[in-house]
Amino acid sequence: MKKIAHSPGVIAPPPLLYLGGLAFGYAFHWLIPWRPFNHTLVLGLVLIALGIAIALWAVGVMARAKTPVDPSRSPTHLVREGPFRWSRNPIYLSMTTASLGAALALNNGWIIVWLIPVLVTMHYGVIIREEQFLSDKFGDTYREYLRRVRRWL
Question: Structural domain of residue 113, as residue ranges?
Answer without folding.
Answer: 14-148
